[in-house]
Amino acid sequence: MNPVLSCESRGLHPCPACERGDESLCEQKTKGSIESGLLIGACKDTGGSWSPYFVAHKSQILPLPDAVDDLNGVLVEPFSCALHAVLRNPPKGGDRVLIIGAGVIGLSVVAAIKALDYSCHVTILVKHSFQGEMARAFGADEVIYLDGSYVENTANALGAETLKPLLGPEIVQGGANIVYECVGKKKSITDALRFTESGGKVVLLGLASIMKQVDWTTVWLNELTIKGCFAYSTNEFEGQRMNTLQIAIELMKRGKVDLSPLITHQYPLHDYKVAFNTITKRKQENALKVVFNHDQTTVGG
Ligand SMILES: [Zn+2]
User: Fold this and answer.
1) Would you write out the chain's pLDDT as a tens digit for each of its 301 residues?
2) Are 183 and 166 contacting, i.e. CB atoms less than 8 angstroms apart?
3) What letter does residue 281 receive in the DSSP assignment?
4) Which neighbouring-strand residues pair with 171?
5) How remote is the C-alpha of 144 from its chain's centroid?
6) What is the dihedral of CA 88, 89, 92, 97, to 10 degrees?
7) CA separation (Å) from 222 to 99, 143, 153, 203?
8) Spatial CA neighbour of 56 closest among 44, 46, 42
9) Distance (Å, rounded) from C-alpha 22 to C-alpha 210?
10) Residue among 38, 34, 48, 33 at smallest CA distance from 17
11) How far apart are CA 239 and CA 236, in angstroms?
């Protein structure tokens, strides 16, 4: 199910954004016969997926082929966020790519780059060892842990050097051609800006908001391009314009990607307290994606 509540699902004449295939940027997300909300799950009239049933417009339903199992099916949506970011901001052959963050989105960016056969060098910055192992399994070339020497290690992995200015933290000379920022916090944004080479691009997938004390010097000094990215819509794939979720399903069907290892925990709905506890203790539980399984009667792991 494509959860975006854009003009079509709201029963409205298409706005300029929807007309050009940018449904996630729809200008009428508060209009139409259903309540305001960007997505199913954030609209009081549709319900959400934390229930056995919810309401969707027929245009939002996508058939899942038999070749794609339910675990991959449940990951079509987050994988599409990564695919959209990569398809709209593709690395060039031989590029040095840095991914910051190894939650479901960061790992999906690794998987998207590999599934689309881009021949670039992928470095990923991760917090926990289970995330690092998963990143490697998905095809990351270098995994850097956020320890005391990560700035040096990341610079080395990117063929860059670190410099110590008179004031402030270490800066980086050189860096990645393109950085996919998948955390959205002050530290990760700061890292994205300093690990990008002159003239390079930072793609924001993390949900960054109001942020104090982010040093923007490198943005003008190194003439960086900062590109935002939200959800999924219509993308170019093999010369065709397709819905991002359809592209995700197609890549899964062809066996170009298997995201099922990202689902680390499954719970029946009535165990929602345990499920939320697992998600808030991500590190102790080695949790990535925690899902509800309505067929299940006992706690799985
Ligand atoms: Zn629209």
Assistant:
1) 999 999 999 999 999 999 999 999 999 999 998 999 999 989 999 988 777 788 999 999 999 999 999 999 999 999 999 999 999 999 999 999 999 999 999 999 999 999 999 999 999 999 999 999 999 999 999 999 999 999 999 999 999 999 998 888 888 999 999 999 999 999 999 999 999 999 999 999 999 999 998 989 999 999 999 999 999 999 999 999 999 999 999 999 999 999 999 999 999 989 999 999 999 998 899 999 999 988 764 444 4
2) no
3) T
4) 163
5) 19
6) -140
7) 19, 25, 21, 16
8) 46
9) 25
10) 38
11) 6
Start-to-end C-alpha separation, the chain: 25
Strands 161-163 and 142-145: unpaired
Could you tell me the distance, in angstroms and rounded to a whole number, from the CA of residue 93 to the centre of ligand 1? 35
Residue 18 Cα to ligand 1 middle (Å): 4
The domains of the chain, with CATH numbers, are 1-61 (no CATH), 76-228 (3.40.50.720), 261-292 (no CATH)
- Ion ligand 1 residue ranges (Cβ < 5 Å): 6-7, 15, 18, 26, 28
Token pair 């040093």 in the structure block, residue: 215
Tokens 């190894």 sit at which residue? 102
Compute the distance between CA of residue 97 and CA of residue 86 in angstroms, rounded to an integer: 11
CA of residue 1 relative to chain centroid, distance? 17
2 CA distance to ligand 1 middle (Å): 14
pTM beyond 0.90: the answer is yes
Cα angle: 239, vertex 241, 247; to 5 degrees: 90
